[in-house]
Write a structure and sequence with these properties.
- By secondary structure, this protein is α+β, with helices and mostly antiparallel strands.
- Among the domains are: 89 residues, PDZ domain (Pdz3 Domain, Roll), CATH 2.30.42.10; 150 residues, 2-enoyl-CoA Hydratase, Chain A, domain 1 (Alpha-Beta Complex); 86 residues, Muramoyl-pentapeptide Carboxypeptidase, domain 1.
- 31% of the residues lie in helices and 24% in strands.
- The chain contains twelve helices and 22 strands.
- The strands form five sheets. Strands 1, 4, 16, 17, 20 and 21 form a six-stranded mixed β-sheet that branches. Strands 6, 7, 8, 9, 10 and 11 form a six-stranded antiparallel β-sheet that branches. Strands 13-14-15-18-19-22 form a six-stranded mixed β-sheet, sandwiched between helices.
- Helix 6 packs parallel to helix 7, helix 7 runs parallel beside helix 8 and helix 9 packs across helix 11.
- The longest helix has 18 residues.
- This is C-terminal processing peptidase.
- One of its GO terms (biological process) is signal transduction.
- Its EC number is 3.4.21.102.
- One of its GO terms (molecular function) is serine-type endopeptidase activity.
Length: 475
């Protein structure tokens, strides 16, 4: 069976081509309903009668198209599956555009959880990441307007927009007692999925390959990167899929075949009857150098397949955090007018046959980043000053302490020690020394934090992966 699937790009799902599923089509002669079984004709008659009654007798005018779309959405909502959704023609076109070489927006994957649009992951170096959006942030408002009642696709259409324009997202964040208003400047989001470099540490040449998503040519780009690093004398390899929401399944399969040895499984696909298809690596010999993966809580779908394959198929280590936990497969189905259904039709299992949906893949070596990596962005209206307190003060304290200005406490109370730390920061960054955090000081604090986060020397997970490579290469 030829599989063409997408995990996570724009809609965070896995897709099969529509002609792959004929064997799972139900008997068209009978339809199961709550009160029993209706023939196809009786079911159609019941639906058409309800449609006619609403059109003719409902108190307000309503179009047939609106009712039909509502009926489809209602059927999908009864599944209680955030990955099974209806897309209008416009939404389907926008989704397709997101699979191209670039799109314009904020660069974040989203899904619907408990009726709320939720950030799965901000893409690396995207406007969403730079603005401080984090996985599991729940979007309550867009530009001050509530999005309650909107579908996921409708919300995404409001979030996306032209490069250079700003959208303000009102965020509910776990652990924060206050809602956060986060302005994000939209930009062109390039789909350059593979970045690589050679890093020398302890006299070893260690290759780093970062995969931001699994698009149509990612496996080819990965192969080029791998061959280039090997030709330059690579003695160890780090594969980084942090913040990677997924992509085409065949791409992660092909990557797995380059690094998973001994004809071990890379992934398994399970149908509704429990039958499984295993994708087996064709690589016969183990690489001569150690390989270590890195994951975080934003690593999803295809990233999780690769992490599971490294651990269970390749017996390699993975460093970092437990992954997102997306283990179902969706099929895209055209409805004839440009609109589409995305419907969960399969589960995917790890190389070892484990179902990670809702659970994620646990790394073999768990490493968290420094606390300030996770601090919420500062949103300053009135300056933070001596004796003020609250969530904004607590976040500022975490940031300042993380970048080397000791506040003495991180409980959200702005005391004399915090004033001193702010003064030291302001002096070090050529700001007016006031001991208060106004909008200018907050902006510079966040800029310095972003610089520190991007510095590999401060990246605890990456440094742990390097140390593990060195230990394994020299033993």
């Amino acid at each position: 069976m030829i599989i063409a699937v997408i995990l996570g790009l724009g809609a965070f799902a896995i897709y099969f081509q529509s002609d792959q599923m004929a064997s799972d089509t139900p008997d068209p002669e009978a339809v199961e309903v709550a009160g029993g079984t209706l023939t196809e004709g009786e079911f159609s008659e019941k639906f058409e009668k309800a449609l006619a009654i609403i059109e003719e007798q409902y108190v307000d005018d309503v179009s047939e198209d609106e009712l039909l779309q509502g009926a489809i959405k209602g059927m999908l909502e009864t599944l209680e599956d955030p990955y099974s959704v209806y897309m209008s023609k416009e939404e389907a076109n926008q989704f397709t555009e997101a699979l191209g070489s670039h799109f314009e927006g904020i660069g974040a994957e989203v899904m619907m959880t408990d009726g709320k649009v939720t950030i799965v992951t901000p893409m690396r170096e995207s406007p969403a990441e730079q603005a401080g959006l984090q996985p599991n942030d729940k979007i309550l408002k867009i530009d001050g307007e509530t999005i309650e009642g909107l579908s996921l696709s409708e919300a995404v259409m409001q979030i996306r927009g032209e490069k250079g324009t700003t959208v303000t997202l009102t965020i509910e964040r776990a652990g924060s007692s206050e809602l956060l208003d986060i302005p994000v400047v939209r930009d062109a989001i390039p789909i350059e999925t593979v970045h690589y470099e050679m890093i020398e540490k302890d006299s070893l040449n260690i290759g780093l390959i970062q995969i931001s998503s699994f698009s149509a040519d990612t496996a080819d780009r990965f192969k080029e990167a791998l061959e280039s690093l090997e030709s330059d004398g690579m003695e160890g390899l780090v594969i980084d899929v942090r913040g990677n929401p997924g992509g085409y399944l065949d791409q992660v399969e092909d990557i797995g075949k380059l690094i998973i040895p001994d004809k071990q499984p890379i992934v398994q696909i399970q149908d509704r009857n429990g039958e499984k298809m295993r994708v087996i690596s064709t690589l016969e010999e183990r690489k001569s150098y150690p390989i270590v993966g890195i994951t975080d809580k934003s690593s999803a779908s295809a990233s999780e397949i690769l992490a599971g394959a490294l651990i269970e198929g390749g017996n390699y280590d993975v460093v970092g955090e437990q992954t997102f936990g997306k283990g179902t497969v969706q099929q895209t189905l055209a409805l004839g007018d440009g609109s589409q259904l995305k419907l969960s039709v399969y589960k995917w299992l790890t190389a070892g046959g484990n179902d990670i949906n809702g659970e994620g893949v646990m790394p073999t070596v768990e490493v968290k980043q420094p606390d300030y990596f996770y601090a919420a962005p500062l949103s300053i209206e009135d300056p933070l000053a001596l004796d003020t307190m609250g969530e904004q003060v607590r976040n500022a304290q975490r940031m300042l302490k993380g970048i080397g200005f000791d506040t003495g406490r991180e409980d959200g109370y702005f005391d004399e020690q915090t004033v001193k730390a702010v003064e030291e920061f302001q002096a070090a960054n050529d700001l007016g020394v006031t001991g208060q955090i106004d909008q200018e000081t907050a902006s510079v604090i966040q800029e310095v934090v972003v610089e520190n986060v991007r510095d590999k020397e401060n990246d605890a997970q990456f440094q742990a992966a390097l140390d593990l490579i060195i230990k394994q290469a020299t033993n």
